[in-house]
Every structure is written in C-alpha cells, then in structure tokens.
C-alpha cells in the first residue's frame, strides 16, 4: 500500500506535492505510531488515570482523588524500596563506570593479550541476567557456596550473604557491576578511538607523563561519554530487577527489593493494580526526570554531529 | 493471530505427541500446580496425568508446572484476569478467601454429584478445615503436609545423644542443639544444631511455634489476626534466640529451598521442614535419619500445609464434571498412597493407609507416618482475606526478627498494624 | 619499551580479566562434572554430559529454545521493518508535525515498555493475546532506539545517490529499498545484534504474560526450572543455565569483533 501511494508521487502542483509528501510520511510512520500509542503512550496515560481510582474488588471502581498517593506516602515498604533503589544506583553506577574506564584504557593500548582481555570483560554483557543470577546465587550460598569456601580456606568464618540485610544489597551490586562494566567499557572504547593520536604524540614530545595526559586530556574529552553512560546506568538501575526474582525475592524483609520489583509484586501477586499504577507513576516520574537531563545533553550532541 | 501462531508453533514441533493424539470430543482441562519440595515432582505428576488420560480417553489434562505456591497463584490469577483461567488448579489450601473474593471458584459439593458428600467425608477432617467456609466445601486436599522435625541420627550418636530420642519440648531442643553444634579448629561452626527456614514460608514456621505456645494466629472468618499477642511474640523470640542467644542456628535468613541440602550435607543436625520433602531426604541421605513431631511448649502442634484442588467458576459444566472426575482419580486411595510414597506428603484419606502398598512401605520406613500421626495435634493453616499480602507481611516480619533488624515485638507489632490496615476492608 | 616486559598494569588487567571469567568458568566446571565435584576442584574429576541429559529430560528445553528463537526472530523482523519505514520518514521527508512525532517516538527511550508492565498487561489481555509469543514481542515491536539509529544512518546518505536512483526512475519506495537499506547495512547489523541479545535475555515481561510451556521463552523456563524449592541439584541447574546462555555465548565468541563493534556503533549516537 505504501509503495502504491509513494509511486504516485509524480509531478504535480507544488501544493499537491506537499500534500502527498505529508501523506507518504504519515503512512510510513503509521505502524510505528500505532504500536507506540498502544504500548507506550496509552499505558502511560492509563497508569496516571488508574492511580486516581479505587481497586473496586467488590463493586465498581470509584474516583478516590489522591487516596492512593496518601497510602503510598504512608507505606513503609515504598520508602524502603525507594531508598534501596537509590543505594543500589549509588553502589553500582560510579563503580561500574570507573571499572569500565579502566578496562577501556587498558584494552585501548597495545597490551599483551588485548583481544582476550576485551573478550573477558565484555562476556558478562551478553549473558541473560537470569542465568547470571543463578550462577552468583551459588557463589553466595552460605557454607558451601564458593565465596564461603574461599573465606573458610583463609580461616574466616562463613556468612549468610543474601540472608543478611546488611550485606544483601552489596552482594547484588557486585554482581551487577560485574555484568555491566564490560558494556560501558565499549562506550569508552569507542570514545577513546576518536581521540586523535597526534594529541598524544604532541604530549609525549612535551614530556608529559601518561597520568598527566590522561588527567588533563583524555578524561575531559571523555566527559560527554561519562555523562551518557551515567544516565544509562542510572536508568538501568531502575528497570533491572530480574536478579531479584531468582536470588532474594526482594528479601530479607524487603532489604533487597527495588521499586520495579515492588510494582511487580503489588500488581501480580496482590492484584492491587491501582496501587501498582500509583507506584508506576512515581517510577515514570523518576525516569522522565533522568531522561530529560539526557535529552538536553543529547540534543546538543546531535546538533554538531 | 493467536490461533495462527499457536498452530504454526505446533506444526514446527513434531515431538508434541499430545496434540497428535488428541481425541475427538475430548474435554480439555488446564491445570496449574506448584512444587515446593525436592525430587522429580513434575515427572510424578506428568506420569499420573498420562495414566489418567489412558483410563479416561475423553478427558485431556494439561498440567502446567508454574513455580512455587506464590508463583502458581500469581499465574492462575494472571490467567484469570486475562480471560483465560485454568479449569482447575492446585493452590494453597489457604488461598481460599482470596479466590472467593475474586469470585473465581465453585464449591466442590455443588458439582461433585450424588455421592459427593460421602466422598468429601472420606478425607482427614484436619485437611478439610481450610476448605470449608459458609457451610460449603470449596477445595479438595491433595498435596498436604505438616511440619516435622528431621534429625540426623549419626550426629546424635556422635554428640552422645540417644538417636531414638528426638527432642520433645522447646527446652530440650535448645539443649540438645547446643550439644550438636560442632566447630572446627579455628572456631568456625561446621555443623549447626537446628535450622528453621525463614524465607518463603516463614509465616508457616511462626504459626507452628505459636500453636505450640498455645496461640492462634487468626480467626475463622479470616478477617482478624493475632500477630502481636504476648504468646506470638514469645514464639518468635524463641526462634530468634536459637540463633542470637543459644548460637545453635545460623544468624540471618535461612533459605527454605536449600535447607534440605544443608541437612543432607550434614551442615545442620536437625531441621524443621515439610513432610513433603521426606522422600527427597530419604533418597539423598547418606546417614541414618529420624523424623519426629515438632517439640511442644504448652502443647504439640503444627499447622497443616500444602495445596488443594480448586475448580474454577468459568469452566463449562462439562469441564467442571471432568475436573471432578480427575480430582477423584488423583485422590483415590491407591493414587494417594503412591503420591505419599513418592514425595512424603501425607496421604489425604485414611483409606490410603489401608492399601497394601502403603502398609508395605510404612513397615520398612516408619518415618512415613509421623506427619500423619501429628494430624491429631494439627491446626488449620493461617488463612485470611488477601492472603498473599498477609503472608508477605508476616514473612517480612519474621525475616526482620531473625536478621536482627527488629526485635520480635517490634516486628510483630508492625505486622499486626499492616495486616489490620489490609484486613479492615473485609469486616 | 614499556611493552617489552609485563608491567604492573598488564598484570592487573590480566588478574581482573581472569576474575571476570571466573563465574563463567565455574558454571562450566559444575555443569560438566558430576554433582559431587560441584564444590570440589580436582583436575582428575571425570567429565560428564549427564547433567545436561538430566536437565533436558526434566524440562521441555527444546520447546523453550524454539519459543525463544521464534520470539527474537519475530521481534527483530518487526522492529527492522517498522523502524526502517519510520526512520525513512524522519530522515527524508519534511512534513507537518515531524518534530512532535519524533518527540513522541523518543518518549519510548526514556519510559521503556519494561516499566509499563501493569498497563501493557491490560492491553495485551484486551487484545486476547495473553500466553502467546506475539504478546511478548508486541510492546517492543516499535523501537525508538532502532528508529533513532536508522534515522542517523539515513541522514548521512549522500543526496547524489538518491538523485541518481530517481533519475533511473525509482519510486520513493524503490529508493528506500535500493539505496538506503543497503547503505544502512552496518547499522542493521549493529541494531540486530543488540536487539537479539536483549530479547534473548529479557525476563520480567515474558514471565508476566506467559503461562504455559508453549509460550515460555528460555529465560522464564530456566527460572521456573531452577526455583530453589524444587531442590533440583546444583549441577543440573548450572547445566540448564549453560544451555540457556550457550547459543548467544557461542555466537559472541565466533563473531566477537562484530559484536563489540555493533555495541559500539549502537552506543555512539
């Protein structure tokens, strides 16, 4: 159909042409727009709408104003998962970025076994989180898990890593850093390759040390990449909850639960869909805030590309 | 679109024999069921379903394993909300109120036919308790259990304890556990005295302790709970003290799923677990082990547990009838005995214990009837409206207490407060 | 000079790399050895495929593979067609509402279908598609990311090529097919690899919308299979885990360079 309409874009009056161009463009966009409307725009609006209604389990749903929001603000678990999520972001984002940068700098140089190193760092990225969680779960198993066995061989005592609220988050964060650092390394690698080698040669001639060059030239040039990765990592920390299903189910006592996992639980285990909608509005707001920063910055880059 | 994809999928799969063998005019049933214990449970179910279909060629049952109890309930509800409910499912016997509130199920006595009443009378009354509300029977017991104490006889001997005398009281269990703890040269514990699992089914263990301490956790109407009563708090305190004060149990949350492995690997001398795990323990144990009723404080006791069959309202009368046929087949004495032997779950009717197979089995393995014998002390499992949410609240509190984040009093006060907020809608 | 002997840095890089491979190496160890060696390391331990055989017997992994294969194919095919058309419109047409529409597309970049599980579930259920593979695929079919990448690629196509094709009498669609699509090849590969690895690994949404073996992808099948309650023994779970990762991992090892470059390309926007 599209083809037929487009081949009709034969010479005509200028106005007719504009009109045809419009029709063509809209037809080309139609499939994408329909799907986006159905699975992104409508759901966002519907989430907002439902958050103002009662559940209506025994009777029709009623408009309840901000009741669901008041309930949310009084819900200790909500505050806890929000805190957890912030902690999780703070624990994973800077660490994985720092590691990614280190990896990229290494791999970018003529280091021995460069291909192997790059492979090793990047491999976790292509593995399913579910599979990764399964493997790490056994690392952390008390007593006969790999970590405890290792510690015991050094004479330390074992620890219930995932069963202790004070360690569970860190354990999961370590795993996520392991999985993500290699992914971010790629972005840095791409950026490093755009730095002209002459710059470095010039610096060498000037007698600058490598560290000095890295600090004063490389790092500033990588700033946009760093910002870009930070934002991506931040968004990821809000939408990545697969590991919880396998490792902790959000426990013990919600110590490892994250906002999206809590939404999943409220919606599909407790079937409180209006409260889930309310929580989702919060999540959307957070993501939108993060993403706006991203777009302000992205637009600038697109501009000079 | 859906039909197309599905037929496309099936066309591509030559190994799906079930579809090739479908019989004209067969009644199709979909059933979700959970697995919460070790062993090849899905195989056992599949095998039973196959034999049922052979005997009843006009009924086709698709049994779908959907994870643990919570996952299965989630799946059944998800499917129902999505307009494709299963015709029957094995779900927590305690999900009854939730399923009633969702108007999801039909009472069994209304569809069981003329001799339905006599049939429903044939089950152990303790297992029927959770299924009877408003004068109707809403579910049929299937994979039912009580909590039992598994203990390692070799460890008992090694610690100088009589392997034929498991602890009978709380105090004894704590004392014996202290003797059973083993430490290596550097002072690290290499074997714990006892472990009570606190993930997944923490509410169930707490209820056992509360019952033993003479405290009920809920009322019969399922809209009132007694979590922060003095005796409930004492129950949780005892549990917490096993780790914090007596040092006989590891600190932190203990995994329901891996506890059996801990026991089999000799990492703990005793464990509290469902009798449904008995056969898996028997298969895996490289040492002599015993099974005992849970120790008493004021009294003996354990909540019943496990899953019942439910039939969904949205099924056609024909399907409902077929579902009852299937359920009757699955719970018939021979099958109930077979199921009990293969898993460790309590057979649901006294008649099952009169079968030759069961008698022979018990003769060689007396541990198999401990859970049944405990039924006389058993109490209905915690069952209230919005059950999933209440379970989560109690589980969270139990975990808060065993990990030392909150004191038992604080944890249960908070559980009581949150539960009352949820249950206020059902008064 | 620095390269002649291993510097501290080289050693550090290698240590980190080995550490990074450790979890994977460990899962392979435990998958290919009998259960009693799962936590004991002994070079003389016998190798076995028994764990794989048992995992394969205990759950319908063949079906899961098929489901996942169908899923990623369906998503990728849909995404490529839809994103190509949309990107073409954005890159090469001036039309009313272009900027607004582009902004509307970009909304999906910040609020991914992954977080709209509650309402998307309603939509899918309203379409009567629950528990089907299209249900898993549909929310991801229109990819803002793909549209964005292709738009960038199409924008950089020189006008002369377009004009030349026009002179030869190609229609707009012909131009798209004969000029833009071939020139976008690297972008397609890049996007394809990213998309396939994303959807091969995706979990939460498929978990929600699938109920039966007929529609479960590998990840969900693995999660259901490995649930700790079932007490399936560890070696068998790792074998299943390895099976789930294997196709993607092998593809990655074989086409390492393409993978890395694709992810790079997809990353620089």
UniProtKB/TrEMBL annotation, chain A:
Keywords: Cell membrane, Membrane, Transmembrane, Transmembrane helix, Transport. This is Carbohydrate ABC transporter membrane protein 1 (CUT1 family). The chain crosses the membrane at residues 25-45, 86-107, 119-139, 167-192, 213-235, 275-297. Belongs to the binding-protein-dependent transport system permease family. It comes from the Bacteria. It is found in: Cell membrane. Residues 82-292 form the ABC transmembrane type-1 domain. One of its GO terms (cellular component) is plasma membrane.
Automatic annotation (TrEMBL), chain B:
Residues 418-427 have a biased composition (Basic and acidic residues). Keywords: Periplasm, Signal. PANTHER family: ABC TRANSPORTER SUBSTRATE-BINDING PROTEIN, ARABINOSE-BINDING PROTEIN-RELATED. Its main location: periplasm. This is Carbohydrate ABC transporter substrate-binding protein (CUT1 family). It is found in: Periplasm. It comes from Microvirga subterranea. Residues 405-427 are annotated as: Disordered. Belongs to the bacterial solute-binding protein 1 family. Residues 1-26 form the signal peptide. One of its GO terms (cellular component) is periplasmic space. InterPro entries: Bact_solute-bd_prot1, SBP.
TrEMBL record, chain C:
Its main location: membrane. It is a multi-pass membrane protein. Coiled coil: none annotated. GO terms for cellular component: plasma membrane. The keyword Transmembrane helix applies. It is found in: Cell membrane. PROSITE patterns: ABC_TM1. One of its GO terms (biological process) is transmembrane transport. Keywords: Cell membrane, Membrane, Transmembrane, Transmembrane helix, Transport. The keyword Transmembrane applies. The chain crosses the membrane at residues 64-88, 100-121, 133-154, 175-200, 234-255. Residues 65-255 form the ABC transmembrane type-1 domain. Belongs to the binding-protein-dependent transport system permease family. This is Carbohydrate ABC transporter membrane protein 2 (CUT1 family).
């Amino acid at each position: 159909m599209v083809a037929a309409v487009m081949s009709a874009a034969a010479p005509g009056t200028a106005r007719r042409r504009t009109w045809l161009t419009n029709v063509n463009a809209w037809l080309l966009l139609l499939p994408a727009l329909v799907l986006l409307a159905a699975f992104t725009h409508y759901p966002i609006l519907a989430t907002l709408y439902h958050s103002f209604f009662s559940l209506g389990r025994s009777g029709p749903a009623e408009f309840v104003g901000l009741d669901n929001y008041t309930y949310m603000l009084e819900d200790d678990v909500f505050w806890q998962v929000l805190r957890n999520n912030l902690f999780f972001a703070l624990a994973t984002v800077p660490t994985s970025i720092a590691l990614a940068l280190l990896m990229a700098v290494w791999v970018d140089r003529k280091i021995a076994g460069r291909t192997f190193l790059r492979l090793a760092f990047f491999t976790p990225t292509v593995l399913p989180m579910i599979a990764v969680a399964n493997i790490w779960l056994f690392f952390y198993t008390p007593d006969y898990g790999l970590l405890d066995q290792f510690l015991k061989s050094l004479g330390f005592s074992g620890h219930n890593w995932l069963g202790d609220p004070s360690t569970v988050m860190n354990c999961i964060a370590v795993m996520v850093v392991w999985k993500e650092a290699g992914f971010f390394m790629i972005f840095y690698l791409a950026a490093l390759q755009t730095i002209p080698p002459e710059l470095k040669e010039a610096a060498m001639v000037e007698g600058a040390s490598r560290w000095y060059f890295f600090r004063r030239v490389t790092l500033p040039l990588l700033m946009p990449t760093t910002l870009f990765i930070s934002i991506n990592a931040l968004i990821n920390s809000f939408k990545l909850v697969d590991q919880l299903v396998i490792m902790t189910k959000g426990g013990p006592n919600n110590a490892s639960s994250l906002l999206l996992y809590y939404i999943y639980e409220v919606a599909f285990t407790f079937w409180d869909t209006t409260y889930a909608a309310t929580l989702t509005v919060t999540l959307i707001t957070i993501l939108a805030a993060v993403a706006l920063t991203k777009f302000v910055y992205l637009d600038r880059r697109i501009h000079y590309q | 679109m859906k039909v197309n994809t599905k037929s496309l999928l099936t066309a591509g799969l030559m190994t799906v024999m079930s579809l090739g063998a479908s019989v004209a005019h067969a009644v199709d049933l979909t059933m979700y069921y959970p697995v919460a214990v070790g062993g090849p449970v899905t195989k056992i179910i599949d095998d039973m379903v196959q034999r049922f279909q052979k005997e009843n060629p006009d009924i086709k049952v698709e049994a779908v394993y959907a994870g643990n109890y919570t996952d299965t309930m989630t799946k059944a509800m998800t499917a129902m909300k999505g307009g494709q409910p299963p015709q029957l499912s094995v779900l927590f016997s305690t999900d009854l109120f939730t399923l009633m509130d969702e108007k999801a199920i039909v009472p069994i006595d209304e569809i069981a036919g003329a001799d339905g009443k006599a049939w429903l009378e044939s089950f152990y009354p303790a297992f029927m308790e959770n299924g009877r509300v408003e004068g109707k029977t809403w579910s049929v017991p299937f994979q039912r259990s009580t909590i039992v104490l598994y203990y390692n006889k070799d460890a008992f001997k090694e610690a100088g304890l009589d392997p034929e005398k498991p602890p009978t009281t709380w105090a004894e269990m704590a004392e014996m556990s202290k003797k059973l703890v083993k430490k290596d040269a550097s002072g690290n514990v290499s074997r714990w005295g006892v472990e009570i699992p606190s993930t997944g089914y923490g509410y169930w263990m707490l209820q056992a302790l509360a019952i033993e301490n003479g405290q009920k956790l809920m009322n019969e109407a399922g809209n009132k709970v007694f979590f922060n009563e003095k005796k409930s708090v004492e129950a949780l305190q005892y549990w917490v003290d096993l780790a914090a004060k007596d040092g006989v149990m590891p600190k932190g949350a203990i995994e329901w799923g891996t506890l059996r492995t801990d026991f089999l690997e000799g990492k703990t001398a005793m464990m509290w677990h469902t009798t449904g795990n008995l056969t898996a323990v028997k298969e895996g144990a490289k040492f002599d082990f015993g099974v005992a009723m849970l120790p008493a404080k004021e009294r003996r006791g354990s909540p019943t547990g496990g899953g019942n069959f439910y039939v969904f309202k949205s099924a056609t009368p024909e399907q409902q009838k077929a579902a009852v046929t299937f359920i009757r087949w699955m719970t018939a004495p021979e099958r109930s005995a077979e199921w009990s032997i293969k898993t460790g779950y309590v057979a649901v009717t006294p008649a099952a214990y009169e079968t030759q197979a069961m008698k022979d089995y018990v003769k060689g393995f007396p541990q198999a009837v401990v859970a049944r014998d405990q039924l006389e002390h058993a109490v209905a499992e915690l069952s209230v409206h919005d059950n999933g949410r209440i379970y989560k609240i109690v589980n969270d509190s139990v975990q808060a207490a065993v990990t030392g984040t909150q004191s038992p009093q604080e944890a249960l006060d908070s559980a009581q407060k949150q539960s009352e907020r949820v249950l206020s809608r059902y008064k | 000079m620095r390269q002649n002997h291993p510097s501290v840095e080289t050693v550090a890089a290698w240590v980190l790399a080995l550490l990074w491979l450790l979890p994977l190496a460990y899962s392979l160890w435990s998958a290919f050895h009998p259960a009693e060696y799962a936590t004991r390391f002994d070079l003389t331990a016998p190798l076995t495929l028994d764990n794989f055989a048992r995992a394969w017997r205990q759950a319908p992994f063949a079906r899961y593979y098929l489901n996942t294969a169908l899923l990623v194919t369906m998503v990728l095919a849909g995404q490529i067609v839809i994103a190509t058309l949309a990107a073409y419109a954005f890159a090469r047409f001036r039309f009313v509402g272009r900027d607004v529409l582009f902004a509307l597309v970009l909304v999906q970049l910040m609020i991914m279908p992954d977080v709209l599980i509650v309402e998307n579930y309603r939509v899918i259920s309203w379409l009567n598609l629950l528990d089907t593979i299209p249900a898993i695929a549909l929310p991801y079919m229109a990819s803002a990311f793909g549209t964005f990448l292709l738009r960038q690629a199409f924008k950089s196509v020189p006008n002369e090529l377009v004009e030349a094709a026009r002179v030869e009498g190609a229609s707009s669609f012909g131009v798209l097919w004969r000029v833009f699509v071939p020139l976008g090849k690297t972008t397609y590969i890049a996007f394809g690899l990213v998309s396939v690895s994303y959807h091969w690994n995706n979990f939460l949404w498929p978990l929600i919308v699938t109920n039966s073996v007929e529609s479960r992808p590998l990840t969900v099948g693995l999660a259901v299979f490995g649930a700790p309650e079932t007490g399936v023994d560890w070696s068998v779970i790792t074998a299943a885990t390895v099976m789930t990762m294997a196709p993607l991992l092998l593809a990655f090892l074989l086409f390492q360079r393409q993978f890395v470059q694709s992810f790079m390309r997809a990353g620089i926007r």
